[in-house]
Inverse folding.
């Protein structure tokens, strides 16, 4: 008679081919961690919720103490909990399971005493993985909300009726959606959820973090499942505009003051740029002396007329493939980008008028037009058109964002830049005109700096005993001493590569020359990334008129790796001044309404000569409360560079 299995052992064997695969025999070959803390926690909870293993058994299996595992599971955030030994141990164990072909089990179904339903549908409500869905504003808990509290309650009640969904897991799921500093210290409790569900009224519970988390959870599910916005959602968007429902008007000023006093602000996530989109013409102008008219699409002006048109923004790179090339390309103006030949959309001047994109009749792009016509029949013109205007079609058409590809791409590197360092990005004012010039936002104070014609560059430092060390590949054995010392690791990267220090790498040489590498300790942060513009003679066009061979690193932001936040703009300026590091020119601080009335006036003010000589590229605006930023590009600079 075989020995009796313990309850834990039996449960494990029912889900895993134990004895067939020895996980300890699998070698990960020094792989670096490719999942953040939230993703690992989600897998652990799924395993534990299935009943396949108890928390104690799991801790024993991965070789850590119960205290370490409990501490790791009790935190929340992509990088929160990375210091616990359980993080890497759990990742290794789960990675080995994956390599061995062992799938994570479904959650344990609810007890159904009435015998209704089928156990095969136990995971019906929990089979949507939303971990890869990121919403604009999420990192600062500022996702615009377009549902009333009653509508969210309706969704919560419907979700909890699904087989396999428990209140405890749902509370964890919605708590995981909170990322910002206002996140509660502990996960939501079932009593809090019940209190919210029992309330009544469109705004009853609107200030609750639970309400916000639940809305984000359901919105991510909608996006992941590819479901269109329903009629209620579209009506709410029209009623509340881009900002969504006002959740806590009385605390807005308080939050802004807290941001100022803390000297630490979340990076504002810019609205995702849609290189290819469908637009409606909002204004038509006759161009004297031309057989054309100028039309306005939102804040953009182009030179073709139509009703619904497909708009290609400048910097769109169209590969030389198939009929897209025949339709869009200009054979005599090809460029090579990332090894592909194609056509780059640039600004173009006809007389005194500047075109900032290409548009084509919708019917000429059947990949967009045919599905749109099908949606017209299915959901009606208004809903189908709103849906069409909200989408990006760059991936569908194979269009990429063109970026200057410098020679450093071919030099030795460590791969992509560290994932825990935020890569800055600014929306053009034409893309966010309505949002920025809404009445409440004109009262904000903005830092106004000159936009320099350079390449984004980051110089970073982190301690070798910090959790970030496990997130990057090891340095080569022959790396120069500038990349590490006894306690710290140092790096220099652009947007796409983390580079190895060599004599022929202009980024590293410029970082050394600027003195920023030797002054990283002066910022007072154990783990820090200093970001700025790599400017100089080698930058395409050299619009800043640098002498041959001369380059500079000019700072615009300081990223605190541990908190996942930028230092306040004013503190950044003060630190650079104290340490003798060059900062981008600050033109002043002002409410937007005092500086310009509209986009046209902003564009006029962007014209002129830059502080470093040559035609100024434009301005960058950062709100001092850290919630928004955008750029204004000079039309003269666009004409000069063809960008």
């Amino acid at each position: 008679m075989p020995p009796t299995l313990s309850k834990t052992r039996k449960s494990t064997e029912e889900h895993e081919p134990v004895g067939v695969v020895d996980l300890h025999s699998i070698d990960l070959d020094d792989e670096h961690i490719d999942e953040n803390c939230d993703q690992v926690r989600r897998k652990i909870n799924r395993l534990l919720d299935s009943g396949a293993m108890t928390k104690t058994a799991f801790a024993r299996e991965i070789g850590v103490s119960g205290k370490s595992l409990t501490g790791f599971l009790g935190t929340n955030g992509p990088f929160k909990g990375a210091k616990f030994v359980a993080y890497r141990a759990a990742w290794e164990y789960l990675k080995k399971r994956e390599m061995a072909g062992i799938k994570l089990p479904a959650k344990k179904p609810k007890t159904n005493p009435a015998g209704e339903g089928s156990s095969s549908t136990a995971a019906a409500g929990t089979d949507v993985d939303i971990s890869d869905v990121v919403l604009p504003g999420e990192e600062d808990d500022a996702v615009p909300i377009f549902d009333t509290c009653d509508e969210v309650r309706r969704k919560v009640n419907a979700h909890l009726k699904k087989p396999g969904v428990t209140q405890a897991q749902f509370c964890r799921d919605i708590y995981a959606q909170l990322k910002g500093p206002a996140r509660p210290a502990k996960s939501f409790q079932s009593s809090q959820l019940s209190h919210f569900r029992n309330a009544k009224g469109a705004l009853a519970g609107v200030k609750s973090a639970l309400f916000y988390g639940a809305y984000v959870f359901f919105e991510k599910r909608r996006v992941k499942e590819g479901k269109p916005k329903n009629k209620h959602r579209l009506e709410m968007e029209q009623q509340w505009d881009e900002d969504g429902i006002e959740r806590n008007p009385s605390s807005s000023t308080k939050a802004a003051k807290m941001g100022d006093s803390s000297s630490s602000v979340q990076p504002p996530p810019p609205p995702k740029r849609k290189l290819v989109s469908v637009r409606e013409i909002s204004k038509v102008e006759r161009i004297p002396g031309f057989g054309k008219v100028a039309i306005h699409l939102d804040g953009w002006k182009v030179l073709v007329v139509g009703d619904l048109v497909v708009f290609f923004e400048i910097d769109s790179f169209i590969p030389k493939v198939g009929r897209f090339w025949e339709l869009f390309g200009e054979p005599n103006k090809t460029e090579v980008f990332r090894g592909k030949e194609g056509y780059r959309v640039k600004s173009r001047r006809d007389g005194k008028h500047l075109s900032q994109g290409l548009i084509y009749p919708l019917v000429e792009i059947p990949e967009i037009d045919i599905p749109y016509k099908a949606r017209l029949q299915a959901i009606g013109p208004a809903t189908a058109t709103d849906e069409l205007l909200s989408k990006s079609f760059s991936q569908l058409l194979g269009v990429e964002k063109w970026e200057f590809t410098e020679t450093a791409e071919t030099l030795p590197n460590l791969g992509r830049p560290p994932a825990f360092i935020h890569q800055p990005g600014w929306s053009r004012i034409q893309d966010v005109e309505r949002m920025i010039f809404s009445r409440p936002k004109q009262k904000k104070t903005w830092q106004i700096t000159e936009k320099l014609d350079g390449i984004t560059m980051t110089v970073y430092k982190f301690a070798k005993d910090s959790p970030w060390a496990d997130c990057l590949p090891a340095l080569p054995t022959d790396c120069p001493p500038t990349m590490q010392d006894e306690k710290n690791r140092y790096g220099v990267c652009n947007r796409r590569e983390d580079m190895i220090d060599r004599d022929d790498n202009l980024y590293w040489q410029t970082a050394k020359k600027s003195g920023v590498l030797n002054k990283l300790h002066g910022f007072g942060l154990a783990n820090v990334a200093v970001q700025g513009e790599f400017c100089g003679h080698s930058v395409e066009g050299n619009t800043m008129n640098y002498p041959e061979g001369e380059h500079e690193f000019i700072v615009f932001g300081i990223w605190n790796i541990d908190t996942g936040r930028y230092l306040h703009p004013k503190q950044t300026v003060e630190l650079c001044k104290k340490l003798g590091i060059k900062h981008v020119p600050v033109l002043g601080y002002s409410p937007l309404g005092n500086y310009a009335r509209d986009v046209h006036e902003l564009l006029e003010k962007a014209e002129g000569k830059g502080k470093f000589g040559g035609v100024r590229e434009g301005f960058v605006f950062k709100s001092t409360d850290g919630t928004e930023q955008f750029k204004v590009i000079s039309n003269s600079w666009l004409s000069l560079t063809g960008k």
Remarks:
- The longest helix spans residues 209-225.
- The chain has 21 helices and 24 strands.
- The first strand starts at residue 264 and ends at 265.
